[in-house]
């Protein structure tokens, strides 16, 4: 199974126009550049249509945004674990708030990813969901209150108690699972705040994808993650 280094920054490209096609590869190469310069682990999650293009063009980890709990076969429109692995992904997001799954399906996706030697990153909306996700033994759990996603209001500042409770609950379940903080992460200070609350990094999307200077923003975030600025 691929090994990610922590603390880490994971960039979700969602389906933004600014991160589609060649633009996705451009943003991914910026992330690769900053990762090389700083030594910080930075991963990207492009759209499925861009997955192979991006994974073939960079050396940093690439995640799929979603997988379905189905085997290869007659499942038109579904995305299999086998397909994202073949495309070059090291793992996949599971149960993002914009692509929710049933608990049984989350469990099946985590199992299929593990069987294929891929990393599972399960998203959860609060501390209770996070602890339930951790019990499924994924590699990473990202806590993201859905009401803060895309708002620019970081959970690490608006609702720090959600993050601290999540860390506490997950650690009662397992010491193995890595914990990320998402939702509203928009600036270097948010990265620092997330780490101080006990997480292993951040998951963000629009702040990077839509930034006027994505390279500058990511460099500052990486610096805060390393405690250099």
From TrEMBL:
It is found in: Cytoplasm. PROSITE patterns: TIM_1 (PS00171), TIM_2 (PS51440). Pathway: Carbohydrate degradation; glycolysis; D-glyceraldehyde 3-phosphate from glycerone phosphate: step 1/1; Carbohydrate biosynthesis; gluconeogenesis. The keyword Isomerase applies. It is an enzyme of class 5 (isomerase). The active site is at residues 96, 144. Substrate binds at residues 12-14, 149, 184, 205-206. It comes from the Archaea. GO terms for cellular component: cytosol. GO terms for molecular function: triose-phosphate isomerase activity. One of its GO terms (biological process) is glycolytic process. Its EC number is 5.3.1.1. PANTHER family: TRIOSEPHOSPHATE ISOMERASE (PTHR21139:SF42). Belongs to the triosephosphate isomerase family. NCBIfam families: PRK04302.1, tim. Homotetramer; dimer of dimers. Involved in the gluconeogenesis. Catalyzes stereospecifically the conversion of dihydroxyacetone phosphate (DHAP) to D-glyceraldehyde-3-phosphate (G3P). This is Triosephosphate isomerase. It comes from Caldiarchaeum subterraneum. The lineage of its organism: Archaea, Nitrososphaerota, Candidatus Caldarchaeales, Candidatus Caldarchaeaceae, Candidatus Caldarchaeum.
């Amino acid at each position: 199974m691929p090994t990610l280094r922590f603390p880490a920054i994971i960039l979700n490209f969602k389906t933004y126009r600014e991160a589609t096609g060649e633009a996705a590869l451009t943003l991914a190469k910026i992330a690769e550049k900053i990762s090389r310069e700083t030594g910080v682990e930075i991963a990207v999650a492009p759209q499925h249509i861009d997955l192979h293009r991006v994974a073939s063009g960079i050396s940093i980890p690439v995640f799929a945004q979603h997988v379905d709990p189905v085997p290869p076969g007659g499942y038109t429109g579904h995305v299999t674990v086998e397909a994202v692995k073949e495309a070059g992904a090291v793992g996949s997001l599971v149960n993002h708030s914009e692509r929710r799954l049933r608990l049984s399906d989350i469990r099946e996706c985590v199992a299929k990813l593990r069987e294929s030697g891929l990393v599972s990153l399960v998203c959860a909306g609060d501390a209770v969901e996070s602890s339930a996700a951790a019990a499924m033994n994924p590699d990473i759990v990202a806590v993201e209150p859905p009401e803060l996603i895309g708002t620019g209001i970081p959970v690490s500042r608006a609702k720090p108690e959600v993050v601290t409770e999540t860390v506490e609950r997950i650690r009662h379940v397992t010491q193995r699972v890595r914990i990320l903080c998402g939702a509203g992460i928009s600036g270097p200070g948010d990265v620092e705040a997330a780490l101080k609350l006990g997480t292993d990094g951040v998951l963000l999307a629009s702040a990077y994808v839509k930034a006027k200077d994505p390279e500058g923003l990511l460099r500052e975030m990486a610096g805060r993650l390393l405690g250099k600025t």
